[in-house]
Backbone:
């Protein structure tokens, strides 16, 4: 009889003393929609731009991706429909700020020199900055292209596209070229 009582008592004690189950109950918030409390952080560097952001509107991100897809497919005129009247471009060793028509002419010439353009996205992120009332969409992708002379090249891109009042106003592009393959001896 003592052995029979010992088994249920042991099981009861193990269940009652299981710290993982107790912790799980304590860590679970009463309301699953409760906001996560932010801890005050002191960063080792100061920042030039606002770090106050929140997830961006998926419709704006979709508009940017569809605009980019039109360019890749060779429809520069269609892509330019979503650009503002004045556009700023920031690329490696290049800065331009001017009217949409001039940017359209640049993009048309650039795209016309390509026989093919293939893009493989890793991911993208839309972030809304309430301080500026603007959304930045960042895209990370690999691009492979062939020019009209048959020369092939590729690069990895991280592009930041600023959208305000439903229009693309700025593109800040960063690019990393892949090393050329080593010739076999």
Residues:
């Amino acid at each position: 009889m003592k052995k029979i009582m010992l088994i249920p008592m042991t099981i009861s004690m193990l269940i009652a003393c299981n710290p993982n189950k107790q912790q799980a109950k304590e860590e679970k918030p009463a309301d699953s929609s409760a906001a996560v409390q932010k801890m005050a952080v002191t960063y080792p560097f100061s920042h030039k731009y606002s770090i106050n952001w929140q997830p961006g509107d998926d419709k704006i991100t979709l508009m940017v991706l569809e605009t980019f897809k039109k360019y890749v497919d060779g429809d520069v005129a269609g892509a330019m429909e979503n650009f503002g009247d004045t556009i700023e471009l920031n690329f490696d060793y290049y800065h331009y700020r001017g009217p949409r028509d001039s940017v359209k002419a640049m993009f048309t010439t650039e795209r016309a020199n390509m026989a093919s353009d293939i893009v493989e996205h890793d991911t993208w992120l839309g972030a809304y900055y309430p301080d500026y009332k603007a959304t930045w969409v960042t895209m990370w992708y690999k691009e492979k292209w062939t020019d009209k002379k048959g020369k092939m090249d590729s690069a990895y891109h991280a592009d930041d596209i600023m959208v305000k009042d439903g229009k693309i106003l700025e593109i800040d592009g960063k690019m990393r070229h892949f090393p050329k393959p080593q010739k076999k001896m």
